[in-house]
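Go through the following before class.
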Amino acid sequence: MNVSIYEHIKNNIKDGRLPENFILPENCEKECVKFACGAMDGIMMYNFGGQAEDNAHDIIKALSGENIESAVKEALGTKQVLFLCDALQREIVKEKKYSANELCKIALDLIKNSDSAEVVKTGFTLLELIGTEAVTEVRELLRIFGLCDEFTLWCCYILRHYKDGNEEIFRLAQRVNGWGKVFAVKEFLEPETPEIRRWLLCSGCENDILGSYTAEAVFVKGDVAKLLESRLPHEFDDEEVHGLAALAMRLTDEGPMAGVSALDEPKKVLESMRNVLVQHMGDYEFIDSAIAAIDSYQFPE
């Protein structure tokens, strides 16, 4: 019998996070093993703007069978849940066939026992429809699966409904360093506290994939414009300077996502960042690289 994704993740957690070289089980979908965790969903969300919504009727039928996990896996085929989750939720609500307890039982069975990433995501899609904030088992599952970049997005979809959801999302954002961090920072994390805003500036662009995916969100949510206006260049501490250097590099990249060009007064932004960074020119090579990136940036006409 193939190991469930749940057991695989749980068995690999050490010191509250997954190892840098963590991959999903070999028996998981070929796409999930071939690409970095979370990449399939991330690429479709940000690089291709999604696709036409898939029909969820086959999934609805699969939920009524005896071996639900196998039926859902067969019904999904090669589909991504990302493109049928909304339709699935609408159909479930419309049918009014399942009680909250029944839906929770089905969802937990899919999440805990499947060796298919897309089946697990189907479980989380169902789970979002019911109130689970006070269910200890569900909260623990979200904390476990959220550590894997493949499922951070899906856990955050549920956590955003919790009263303390932003705290939980912040907790996850600090423990993932790939697509999961992109999803958490860009889509869900709210800058409710000075701690979160500081973390966004100092660490929000540090990522195993392109930091440009989160650069604009880090600048806006971290309230960096206000910091640059309210402080003198020498008043930024080392961590903040490092964060500004990383942010400058990512904002001027303008690769898969719009960077500084998407901000208000982009020339003023880069000038203000440069004024801070030049105070530390020569201290670290990457700070010099950030200054060079600012100096060589070509503003769109």
